[in-house]
Amino acid sequence: MKQVTLSKENILGLIAIGLFVLMSISVPGFLSSNNLTNMMFQLPEFGLFALAMMVVIVTGGIDLSITYTAALAGVAIAILSSNGYPIIIAILGGIAVGLLCGFMNGFIIAKIGVSPILVTLGTMVLFEGLILSITKGNSISGFSPEYTLIGNGYYLGLIPLSIIIFLFVAILTSVLLNKTVWGRSVYMVGSNPVASLFSGVNNSKVLMKVYLYSALLAAIASIIMTSRYNTVKVDLGSSYLLQSVAAAVLGGTEIQGGYGKVIGTLYAVMIFQMISSGLNLMGVPRPIVTVIMGVILIAVLIINFIKVKADENKQKKLAETA
Amino acid sequence: MKAFLKSKEMSVAVIILLLCIILAFISPVFLTADNLLDVVKGNAVLGILAIGMTLVIITGGIDVSVAAVTSAVCVVLGKTMMFLPDSPLTIVLIFVIAPLFGVLLGSINGILVAKIQIPAIVVTLGMMSIINGLVLYITNGQYLNSSNFPTVFLKFSNFSVFGISIIIWLFIITAALTWYILKYTLIGREVMAIGGNKESAVRVGINYSKVQIFVFSYMGFLTGIAAIAQTSYTKAVDPNGMIGLELMVIAAVVLGGANIMGGRGTIFGTILGVLLLGIIQNGLILAKIDTFWQKVFTGAIILIAVSYDHIQYKRSQKQLSKIEVEA
Amino acid sequence: MSEYLLQMLNISKTFPGVKALDDVKLEVKKGEVHALIGENGAGKSTLIKILAGVYQPDPGAQFFFEGKEAKIRRPIDATMRGISIIYQDLSLFPNLSVAENIYIGRDSDKHSWKKVDWALMEKTAKKALKELDFEIDVSTPVEKLSIAQQQMVEIARALAFDAKLIVMDEPTSSLSAGEVEKLYEVIFSLKKRGISIIFVSHKLKELFTVSDRFTVLRDGKYVGTYHANELTEEKLITLMVGRKILYEKNKEKAASGKTLLEVRNLAKEGNFKDISFELREGEVLGITGLVGSGRTELAQAIFGINRPYKGDIIINGQKTVIKSSEEAVKKGIAYIPESRKTQGLILRQSIINNISLPVLKKLKNKFLLINRRKEIELAEHYIQSLDVRPPLPYRAAGDLSGGNQQKVVIGKWLSTNPKILIIDEPTNGIDIGAKSEIHKLLRGLAANGMGIIVISSELPEVLAVSDRIIVMRHGRIAGELGIHEATQESIMNLALLGQKGKVREEAQL
Amino acid sequence: GCVSQQGAGGNSNSSKDGKDEAGGGDGKIKIAVVPKLIGIPYFNASEKGAIQAGKDLGVEVIYTGPTEADAAQQVKVIEDLISQDVDVIAVAPNDAAALSPVLQKAKDKGIIVMDWDTPADQSLVELSVHQIDDEAYGRHIAKSLIEQMGTEEGEIAILTGGLAAANLNSWIDAAKKELEENYPGIKLVTDKIATDEKQQVAYQKTLDLIKSYPNLKGIMAFSTPAPLGAAQAIQEKGLQDKIAVVGTALPKDSAPFLEDGSLDVAILWEPDKLGYLTVALAKDLVDGKKPENGQNIDGVGEVEVWEDGKTVIMGPPTDFTKDNAKDYDF
Ligand SMILES: Nc1ncnc2c1ncn2[C@@H]1O[C@H](COP(=O)(O)OP(=O)(O)OP(=O)(O)O)[C@@H](O)[C@H]1O
Ligand SMILES: Nc1ncnc2c1ncn2[C@@H]1O[C@H](COP(=O)(O)OP(=O)(O)OP(=O)(O)O)[C@@H](O)[C@H]1O
Ligand SMILES: [Mg+2]
Ligand SMILES: [Mg+2]
Fold it and tell me: Where is the ABC transporter domain (chain C) (predicted)?
């Protein structure tokens, strides 16, 4: 029967809690309402990228074009709304553009079968080029005040709207992955695409939906970012690319595919957020923050490794005494 | 010859050839020796790193920390050169220091991948973050320029043999050496074997972790060489100058026919991949493509190249699985 | 000096939750062919992996090789002593040439920078291949070889390493009858040269053909070691399973109902051509032939994976184009592939997730979510009815032994309630007990109205389950035989020579 | 209807209290100076000046910024600064519009907001410190190029750091305007070419440019690494006398190229002074003082203040040439 054990995710959760306690004690101002709301405002966009990346990694792929997909969607929204279209139309237009990007990735990966890293490398450059040629490198703004509420507003005057959107998407992703036929197929295709094909799974449909979903999350991230920053530019969120891979992997997602959980990614994003905010509050130089993030990434995996080894030894001892 | 016609390199070669023909028509300058040498020289650093990456990718690994490691070596190299005397010995010394430091960083990657069994992309992502942060912290992004280097190094940078720059020679020698290792040494064959089938490799008694550590250390060694080439090329050290290069390195290798899952990849293919990327960059300006559309073209060419290559590959696989059907 | 080349004593091996081996012993004499047999999950593969240095036995094990105590900690220790293992899934490097595959592993560890002498390598390889009387260009990459050829390369590797003991784990499971004969010859010649062989197989006939002595395992325990002349097939089975089973030619009459599937002039370039046949409700159609005769390709074309083809597939009287495996499943076709580990199962996933995979869509509740309770019930149902051992639904499929894995695959496809079941090499690597269970199961399913196509290279099996037999040769149908006229000889005639025993119309009667 | 634009009033009150406490705690004024990114020579130089000003004037200076020139990262840095209860935030925005909401937030919390180096949303800032008048600067560079070319006819090209860099774009636009208005004989061969803020890319692209346009007479290079790469290409091909290069580079880095004429003039201001000025004016603001036109700032010199009372111009640009480059330490 199922045992309650220290899974990868549980360890990570403990680390996250530990970190929170540590930061609260040692960093003045960490528990201030100001800092807490800050973190809640900063987390959603990064979290959305990390989730989008995680879903792709579970299939054994990777999406390097994700931030430019978001930027392109943002450009569409900006152009539509600055041309006087209502917010809803602008948002839908942005999502449609995002989905189109996802479709392009999905088509070449799922139908033609080219490896994801190559395809998304190509589309990354392509999307960047498209944005450059549309915007001529300039930033576009001109969103309506209601639009900026999405990224800057509060729900009940207390909780940032964007974190609510993020949590909703996280729960949705979790339900989709764990409880739906598509979600199950994602894990199966990620574990062994040949066997899933031989089991009547339409791999290319599953993959196509994965890239569409990832693009959708990127578009949502884009909505939050553009409304928060009130502008869009070619490099909108570009620094999130490798960070989101790191967060997904830190969250326990296996880079070869087949395994990955929303909750793990959530913990990882929280850990990164706390480190970033906490160390900034302490006045640690930014480069050192980068160093520490790298150290944490590797350290957590070493901890996992040691734990697996320890478990094996324990099992052995148990077997010997039995 | 026949084998080559069917090989994966062939499709890249075809694309390069097509591009060359088009560019030759558009720009009379393109096919001049001068221009072609410039292209090779400008992409030598990319090439040297891509050659190391070929080995990593053949074993089924990946190293996204190459650009960061190269930057770190460049910085170390630049700082030490400020103290080195203006004598030929300095050149010898930098060829010891740079590769050694590269190997040191590379072997850390290797040990983490082999002994702790963390996936290569994760280890190297972490390393990239650590090294980039440290380099930025230590140097504060400060440039070192040629006035910081001994003149013997500047002479070395401008040195050429048979009219070919030393930087290109570094690339050629690296390629030849690596080709030799891959083809004629036991460890080279073990690299191929591990990529072909990891489980079999363990069963026939190949020391899997040793090979992995070797591959990452060798990658580190080549970042040392690449750092020398880079410093010679720009005659300056810019701690931020390599950011983002890792993706191009990986792209070059995979465009050259290496399989990202491991087992397949050749030095020749990688050289073609590097050339393809180099020619695209060069050609965009020669062809006077509008600035804002250059990236669109680059992206589109990469996508077409990889799709074409993959379709070719699938076709050849189909040929392979054919059986003789009686007429 | 003892008469034994190899002695493994007091061998136990515990996996988390399973005691795979419990105080087992294995003693192999010089120059003998020693059969290692037992039911699925008896522990044969585990024992061999211990010998190979892949697994470490539990403490207390004793190991003697050539009379001396030996420690085998890593695979290389075994290789260096002259123990060569030929695994069922082979240990070749598809991207390397034949010569390299034969040579590799030599000098590993110590001489990393040693120059590879390609000339010497090719010479060694050619010599080893010549000893096997097997001709092939040694520079061909191994991925271009057939399975049988690949096996020869493995054996050549063992010879090139001066192996004193060669272990073959189910070497014949992917070979055709002709190739099996060839393998026997090789085994006999190895034996003559004083090389000992441990032979693992579920095919009793061939075991009696080649083996001198038998070591029998049951449920991880040592049953005994016997001379071939002390044993009969029946006795051996009793030792293995504690009960008697044998299978014989099918005598039942097919209750042929309406036509479920009709294939007309199916052709795919480089795979097969002019394929026409029909499958009726309640019958079992056997398709046999040599390996590489295109049977798998044909089956996969019908299942929508091997596309595009020319010609027509007619299901229930309606012409259909099957574009994907998904559609095939919708149309009531199930296909159990020949390779369990790569195609049949998702090894890292649980038994539940494997069984439910093709029917997930039917397990949706009204919120469009998977009904986990129903899913578990479904898995438990098939675990019980097919007697999967151990009956732990949460266990990863990869932790099961070969036979139990096959049961999971079958369960997975039965869960879709297929009308047409195509099963490719159904009992590959499956013990005799489970085999006849599977045969019975197939007959039972047919009796309930399912149409079944059994693709098999094992003639006794084809004869035991089929109502009709199609023999393929070089991508074409060489002929069709009714069960009454079919014998091993008549099938082999068609498969090897293409001589038609009877015309098809007659055979159908 | 529960959604409101900004946090509950209680929030800002409490943090205001916090600020007062902090202010009373160590008594030092806290001035945060946020560059576009940290770790590049230009902003390192301004950091030096800012820190020096902190020492001279007895205020605490926090100099921090993103590690990439990314608007999102910069917003985070500012948000974290707000949590640290600083008195002034002076920012060089990567993207002015992107910072508006967070600067608004800072303002709401009682923090004085100003910009430096590159303008932010003018409705939010108390003060806008410019090294230079952008328009004048761009025109000056164009004129210098013509001067160095020695002719008013011929083909020229423009290199830029990134296509999306707003301040570079405004200089380039000014330079283009100058050429169009006063030098009709000059032909721009192609649109500005991006060099990714990397010297070796500028170098490679310049090589390609020289080949594609053999009659090229001049290159204007914007962003600090670009002139160096362009000059390097000229140096290597020995075209010092044929092609003139002017650009925005730091004197120390340009010295080797100025020496042999491969780079003719590097035109910039003294970024350390800009940092110093920013801090000095920030402190004045906290003390309730507004700058005046012609005011003399210790260590910087006379500054120009526009009529809006907000825009402060540090002074005319400095031309760094072969002769004076060695006198500067940045
Ligand atoms: N890695 C493993 N982890 C856990 N249990 C294992 C593992 N490998 C084997 N087992 C268990 O050990 C037992 C013996 O398996 P083994 O593969 O040796 O059987 P076998 O005799 O080779 O069977 P088959 O004929 O089906 O191949 C089985 O119960 C199997 O489930
Ligand atoms: N694992 C493999 N590697 C390389 N080639 C293979 C492999 N399996 C089959 N082939 C090749 O594919 C072709 C068709 O084989 P196919 O499997 O269709 O034959 P088959 O009649 O189904 O035989 P079987 O099912 O017994 O393998 C043959 O040329 C064979 O050599
Ligand atoms: Mg077995
Ligand atoms: Mg087959």
Answer: 6-244, 246-499
